[in-house]
Amino acid sequence: MGRTKTFDPAEVVRAARAVFWTRGFESASLPELQEATGLSASSIYHSFGSKRGLFDAAVASYLDEVARPRWQPLTAPQVQPAALVDYLVGLRTALRSSGTLPADHGCLLLNTASAPLAGDDTVARAVGAYCAELRAAISRGVDAARPELDPAARACLADACTGQVVAAFTLIRVDAEQAARCLDAALTLVDPEPAG
């Protein structure tokens, strides 16, 4: 009869997620993961199969607990006209909040896109799916914010805003001011004449 788990898997994954987010998959050592999660190496392997299995769980957790909640107003059944501006302003605030994981380390998935692990087909698909989901959410925000534009112009605007968000996440680790300017540019594109 197998032993009963005496830990909360979601809490373990969150703790590991912080290590992977801070250090990256390759640099996150098993001792660091053990210290963060409170699990032995054998418990990590028994519960998640491997360090990679734990990383995959951390990515799923990142999407469900970090990325998608921020996009939620853009994916709601009825998207409000101000939803995209609110998202961009909120993201800018989050990235300027020094001492937080997003401000200090950007986006877990986009960081992975520039790491050796990105050569793995499963990881490449996960990063691609993340970017597509982000773009789809921003597109819905554009549609709500700028309904007067024709579909091609709205698609172009969604691509431009998505690019600025990706750039901000990429730059935040080295140049917070430039990252903020990327989001300011996206805000100007969406709302060229903000009220008052």
Automatic annotation (TrEMBL):
Residues 29-48 bind DNA. GO terms for molecular function: DNA binding. Keywords: DNA-binding, Transcription, Transcription regulation. The keyword DNA-binding applies. Residues 6-66 form the HTH tetR-type domain. InterPro entries: Homeodomain-like_sf, HTH_TetR. The keyword Metal-binding does not apply. This is Transcriptional regulator, TetR family.
